[in-house]
Amino acid sequence: MAKPTDIHSALREVCGEQTMDSSTVSRWTTRFHEGRVTLNDDPRPGSLETSTDEQSVKLVMDFLAQDL
Fold first, then answer.
1. Measured between alpha carbons, how far is 59 from 43 in angstroms, rounded to an integer?
2. Residues of 23-53 as b/e, b for ≥16 C-beta within 10 angstroms?
3. Quick one: average pLDDT of 24-40?
4. pTM reported for the whole predicted model
């Protein structure tokens, strides 16, 4: 497994100053090592549900086009 410092260095080479902090890379490395398989946020109580399926996106786009 790659070390968080190596991952951060590689990200910095690609993203430059826009790279996340090394502590964030370390935290995410730990999460993936523990079995996490996605970057998506975990559901939280009280948070709003969102939908980005094709039908919902088309519905919103059509609505916005009518408003112009």
1. 24
2. eebeeebeeeeeeeeeeeeeeeeeeeeeeee
3. 91
4. 0.57
